[in-house]
Specification:
Keywords: Membrane, Transmembrane, Transmembrane helix. This is DUF4239 domain-containing protein. It is a single chain. By secondary structure, the chain is mainly alpha-helical. The chain has one domain. It is rod-shaped, with a radius of gyration of 27 Å.
């Protein structure tokens, strides 16, 4: 349920939140001021304002923790994409500067880059793996592992190529792990539920004053929709309106062979 909501378009994400929180406001108003529930609910009059702070503090704390997780995931995604692009550029530079002809390595590198941009990036958006990109990386690793490189260009050159290629694989694995990470789904459910509970707490404090009842719930609902909506748009770092761009890797397609 949470995953289906997070996979929606920006408009869909905000519309669901608006329907949920403003719908809850109307539901609470109907229960509080309309028959047949008005009399038993009004009998709860007397709940003091400090009662509201308990659910609100929990909602604020968990929203803050969730925002920190989302921001950290975005930073990690940005770092691994640039790390992967940097190591690929290192492989290309070493292959060009080497004494021996490493055209096959550069060809394998461009095949991998093209596969990442054209196949693996859309696959990450759809929460799928890309067998063709995995094969392209294996081929790149195979090319830099050929024993003749050490004989023609020296062990130091091959060691540097292997180190860079392995770091590309590590960065790619981190990127794929981040794209398929759903560990925040339960946190989202708890935060949304706490927001609804906070609305109930606000309603209990304003049972005798309809205008204050509506005003306080409208303000809170607006704040919750804006905050949770913006966070939801950043939940998946490789999908949505604020996704990490593949441009650092895509730029490598222009390198010469």
């Amino acid at each position: 349920m949470i995953r289906a909501w997070l996979d929606m378009s920006p408009a869909g994400v905000f519309l669901v939140l608006i329907g949920l929180y403003f719908g809850m406001t109307l539901l609470l108003a109907w229960i509080t001021f309309c028959r047949p529930f008005a009399r038993p609910v009004q009998s709860l009059t007397g709940v003091v304002a400090p009662f509201f702070s308990g659910p609100a503090i929990l909602f604020a704390l968990l929203t803050g923790f969730l925002a920190a997780d989302v921001a950290e995931r975005g930073r990690q995604a940005y770092r691994v994409v640039h790390a992967e692009a940097g190591e690929l550029r290192n492989i290309h530079t070493l292959s060009v500067a080497s004494v021996s002809d490493m055209r096959t390595i550069r060809t394998a590198l461009k095949t991998y880059v093209t596969s990442v941009v054209a196949d693996e990036w859309p696959a990450m958006d759809a929460m799928r793996l890309s067998p063709s990109t995995a094969a392209a990386y294996d081929n790149l690793l195979r090319e830099v592992s050929i024993p003749s490189i050490a004989k023609e260009s020296g062990p130091a050159v091959q060691s540097a190529l292997l180190t860079a290629a392995l770091r590309v694989g590590t960065a790619r694995n981190d990127r794929l792990a981040l794209s398929s990470d759903h560990t925040n789904d339960l946190k989202w459910l708890v935060v949304i539920a706490l927001g609804l509970i906070t609305q109930v707490a606000i309603a209990l404090v304003h049972l005798e004053k309809p205008r204050a009842f509506f005003a306080s719930l409208m303000v809170f609902s607006t704040a919750a929709v804006v905050t949770l909506g913006i966070l939801a748009l950043q939940e998946y770092p490789f999908d949505g309106a604020f996704q990490v761009s593949p441009e650092p890797i895509k730029a490598l397609q222009s390198l010469s062979e």
